[in-house]
From TrEMBL, chain A:
PANTHER family (UniProt xref): PYRUVATE DEHYDROGENASE E1 COMPONENT SUBUNIT ALPHA (PTHR11516:SF60), PYRUVATE DEHYDROGENASE E1 COMPONENT, ALPHA SUBUNIT BACTERIAL AND ORGANELLAR (PTHR11516)
The protein's role, per its UniProt record: The pyruvate dehydrogenase complex catalyzes the overall conversion of pyruvate to acetyl-CoA and CO(2). It contains multiple copies of three enzymatic components: pyruvate dehydrogenase (E1), dihydrolipoamide acetyltransferase (E2) and lipoamide dehydrogenase (E3).
GO BP annotation list: pyruvate decarboxylation to acetyl-CoA
GO molecular function: pyruvate dehydrogenase (acetyl-transferring) activity
Subunit: Heterodimer of an alpha and a beta chain.
InterPro entries: DH_E1 (IPR001017), PDH_E1_Alpha_Subunit (IPR050642), Pyrv_DH_E1_asu_subgrp-y (IPR017597), THDP-binding (IPR029061)
Top-level EC class as recorded in UniProt: oxidoreductase
Organism per entry: Maritimibacter harenae
Gene: pdhA
Cofactor(s) annotated in UniProt: thiamine diphosphate
UniProt name for this protein: Pyruvate dehydrogenase E1 component subunit alpha
Domain Dehydrogenase E1 component: 23-319
From TrEMBL, chain B:
Single GO biological process annotation from the record: pyruvate decarboxylation to acetyl-CoA
SUPFAM superfamilies the UniProt entry points to: Single hybrid motif, Thiamin diphosphate-binding fold (THDP-binding), TK C-terminal domain-like
Residues covered by region (Disordered): 81-144
Entries under CDD domains matching the protein: lipoyl_domain (cd06849), TPP_PYR_E1-PDHc-beta_like (cd07036)
The entry's keywords: Lipoyl, Oxidoreductase, Pyruvate, Thiamine pyrophosphate
Lipoyl-binding domain ranges (all copies): 2-78
PANTHER family assigned: DEHYDROGENASE RELATED, PYRUVATE DEHYDROGENASE E1 COMPONENT SUBUNIT BETA, MITOCHONDRIAL
Example of a GO MF term: pyruvate dehydrogenase (acetyl-transferring) activity
Protein name: Pyruvate dehydrogenase E1 component subunit beta
Acidic residues composition-biased segments: 131-140
EC top class named in words: oxidoreductase
The protein's assembly and partners: Heterodimer of an alpha and a beta chain.
Amino acid sequence: MATAKSAKKSNTSKEELLEYYREMLLIRRFEEKAGQLYGMGLIGGFCHLYIGQEAVVVGLEAAAEDGDKRVTSYRDHGHMLACGMDPKGVMAELTGREGGYSKGKGGSMHMFSTEKDFYGGHGIVGAQVPIGAGLAFADKYLGNDRVTFTYFGDGAANQGQVAETYNMAELWDLPVVFVIENNQYAMGTAVKRSTKSKSLWERGAAYGIEGEEVDGMDVLAVKAAGEKAIKHCRAGKGPYILEMKTYRYRGHSMSDPAKYRTREEVQKMRDEKDPIEHVRDLLLQGKHATEDDLKAVDKEIKGIVNEAADFARESPEPSVDELWTHIYA
Amino acid sequence: MATEILMPALSPTMEEGTLAKWLVKEGDEVSSGDILAEIETDKATMEFEAVDEGTIGKILIDAGTEAVKVNTPIAVLLEEGESADDIDTASKAPASDEGSNGGDGGGATLEDTDTAKPMSTQPAAAVPEPETPEDPEIPEGTEMKTQTVREALRDAMAEEMRGDDAVFVMGEEVAEYEGAYKVTQGLLDEFGSKRVIDTPITEHGFAGLATGAAMGKLRPVVEFMTFNFAMQAIDQIINTAAKTRYMSGGQMNVPVVFRGPNGAAARVAAQHSQDYAAWYAQIPGLHVAMPYSAADAKGLLKTAIRGDTPVVFLENELLYGQSFEVPDMDDYTVPFGKARIWQKGDDVTIVSFGIGMKYALEAAEVLAGEGISAEVIDLRTLRPMDTKTVIESVKKTNRCVTVEEGWPTPSIGSWISSVLMQQAFDYLDAPVINCTGKDVPMPYAANLEKLALVTTDEVVEAAKTVTYK
């Protein structure tokens, strides 16, 4: 029933490779800038950076079609950028300004875009999982041929509502792809300190859900796995689980000193598995792009991110009247 | 252009820290992600990474310096092609005890922090005054039919399901069993299993799933077998359903109704007997209804299903079988935020809701026999709450007793007391008395259970106390 590894990679054109490079770089530079703005006190509260995990969302978005939905946890900036939300609106939400996606009322962890079918941005670990199944339920009920990507981490995988959702999703054949972003640490707790399960995706078997483990640092492997999962869902076969083996370079949030792992461990991942370097190598070695081409992309991304940061600083704070709006429909 | 590297805030509360150690020296080339320094915050020692590439042109704050304010320039980074000579007046290092908003210029980078601090001096916006809606007119000659609360709730759901395909019902035993309390009787037959859905026993999961379905343009009606079991799901009700509209800046509505029996039943003891009215009534973003009569149960549930705000709809097992007169109309709806005056009176105002109305009305009858005229108000909805009607009544009677089954601290009654004290102080001739359930978990023994509940006698006594009779 379940296959262990996604062996086959998609046939990928030069244009596609360049696009993945560009999108992953956008996320990385955006997050670095967010870290910088946080350091300056322009972003407050909790801020969870996505650096290191970029291939997961970029690969899956490459497999998605218009109208497919996505929902995730509070480590959500990468998901928003990958589904095409405006970096300016995302950054301005981080700074709590009027120009933010939630008019400054949601912050880093709570953002939405109905236009891009992004359903949050949820701050409670695991709460987005039944919500994702509910979105898929709605599509099935309405007869839409759409799929919902429901992202959660290795920490959330241990929440009871994830098990409850697996059961209902398979029972009702809901078109939902459960994407476990296993970055190996739930805040400071390594996976092996929180479960004796050898893998997280295999838990789906208890409910009859198929799934597989994927190299989440390889955007092409992610895309191929995503295409397979989507095909499964669109064929009416119910949910599918993808366990993305990935890694976050930064702490859990900005205030996490990350003492639970060694600097060498992080450096090794950066040196050997970096998702952006991987695509960069493919581009250069395959002679799909020159150093200068990539430098031009770097420059373009830097411009976009600086523009977003400028917008996020210049956008005014929300009007005091916003305190009382959007509570009741 | 040389870029100043500023002392970073590394936690939501950090204002200053110790620059413990530099891991780079002047002249070193760095790239994004390289660790520049170790900084001690109030909680931990953190590594501080470079976000740009360049050469460390100058270190402005020595290792070991304590109490370096956030945003103080600590080093200067040179871009490709620049030399240390390019470090101009822009990077004069302020002493560590000077203002935190260092950096006087520097162009394209992020040195100036003029917009960093929230403008806390703005006056708070005034609390908007809610409008009190009016009850719909019941046309002259409308016939009344006698219905139980159970039938009225079922009719409300059936009518709304006929009117809108997006409405569906889900919960434990709602379909084939036709409801643990038979409230969904006949719905599966009429609407089929696509729209009347039996769930596994998985309250947290299906409350979240329904909330997601509501974000996906459906109108779920979720039945909790009882609201005691909604405790398993309360995170989704409060943290997701109630807050999403606000947190999305108004982009997204969550039109879900959570309904089911609430409050004490009979002899089911502590875990199955409690009134959640005051719990849910506290949550901005939710609407909360707790009807007493069949007509209100029907009219309010139809309004709840049609609205775009998430609703907690608190029913009562002991009321399900009670019969009332219900207007026999095509589309009878009752607005949220409008109390019903059950009977007019002059001497004391008795305010209640849900099954508390039973005690309130029984007490009013006893009081009438003793020459005390009570005005009895059914709040019907607790959020929004029609305190205006209560205030107007108290201005006339000058006395108030509240009645509810829930616990006293804090209760709906304690809130009403507070509102009256603030808005009708000069009209009160006696302190408001809150008749509530006793402040104990519900006991099983029949005699103790009786003692734990609010009683008609207690309401009568309270009314006599406030009228000094």
